[in-house]
Amino acid sequence: MDSVTETVSVAAEDEGTRLDRLLAARLPALSRSRLKALILDGQVTVQQAAHETARTILDPSAQVKSGDAITVTLPPPEDAKPAGEDIPLNIVYEDDDLIVIDKPAGLVVHPAAGHATGTLVNALIAHCGDSLSGIGGVKRPGIVHRLDKDTTGLMVVAKNDQTHRALSKQFADKLESELERGYLALAWGAPERPRGTIDAPLDRHPHTREKQAVRTGGREAVTHWELREIYSGADGKPVASLIECLLETGRTHQIRVHLAHIGHPIMGDETYATGFKTKVARLTPAAGEALIALGRQALHAAILGFIHPRSGDRLRFESPLPMDMERLACCLREST
Questions:
Q1: In Å, how far are 56, 60, 64, 122, 124 from 89, measured between CA atoms?
Q2: Are the C-beta atoms of residues 137 and 78 closer than 8 Å to each other?
Q3: Per-residue pLDDT band at 95 (split at 50, 70, 90)
Q4: Would you give the DSSP letter of residue 302?
């Protein structure tokens, strides 16, 4: 692929504007950080008049002049690192700007220490190929949000920088009605009320770095929940429940920590439900076997709704419980 150039003419009202700010306003497909990198790399030139020789500008804060013709050169995008891998994907929706997938359990979203290959990013690089724009400098998918390795369900991924920025804005801390993220969780016990809101700030656990905890002064975290089903044990008392959770914020491990905080941790959660292992004895043999076979936290991203950045249409997707969670729910239901 050859280099691409974009030329911007400076109007009288733009006189004195910073170079990087003007380019960001005129070239919305490029982020300001990307434009700054291009300027520092000598990829931006300015020409005051047609007969003058264009000169390279290396200062992002340089002020532009009326009549300037500014040319930005976009080098060919680099191949993505890591490399693409032929990993099957359950694709729910795809177009030129984004892709929605239904993530299975066990699939890590992004390469990291201990998971350099076999991730969702590896799979998306291979699947999307040249449909990744590379306008940000590297052909790679834009991860807007993440699911834990063992959490299943719906995710949206951007194919270009402009879509990535627009979706990231929708996923920002203070969410409005255009974004909808709903989860289904099989939890120990059952809340006494049919619905409620957990408003409890989260921060890194003071003693265990890999965990999150409810902590005063932490980042705001709000989860709205609604009770869907109650499952009784052999003694007739609630042993588990199906809870739907809607996120108002999207913190790491938010639902897992919040449900544990109100005394109903997610079944199978080895991190936040360690004190509930003795409750397995209250399950029927079939339900106990289903929980062991699950081998993960019983959490599924079941609903995803957002505004398409290009068309402005509202998209909404639903995913049924995966087979392992459905089997556990059926066994719990049969024992009720």
A1: 45, 41, 47, 11, 8
A2: yes
A3: very high
A4: E
Q: DSSP readout, 48-109?
A: SSTTSPPEE---TTPBP-TT-EEEEEEPPPBPPSS--------EEEE-SSEEEEEEPTT--S
Q: How far apart are CA 275 and CA 261, in angstroms?
A: 12
Alpha-carbon gap, residue 322 to 81, rounded angstroms: 31
CA distance 98 to 304: 14
CA dihedral 307, 311, 313, 315 (to 10 degrees): -60
Q: Residue 186 is inside which H or E element, if any?
A: strand 180-188
Do residues 318 and 303 touch, judged by C-beta distance below 8 A?
yes
Choosing from 148, 150, 161, 324, the catalytic residue is 148
Torsion, Cα 223 200 298 114, to 10 degrees, reads 120
Active-site residue, 14 included: no
Q: What is the pLDDT of residues 254-291, one digit of tens each?
A: 999 999 999 999 999 999 998 777 788 889 999 999 99
d(Cα 231, Cα 224) in Å, to the nearest integer? 21
Residues facing 164 on adjacent strands: none
* Burial letters 255-284, b for 16+ CB under 10 A, else e: bbbbbbbbebbbbbbebbbeebeebeebbb
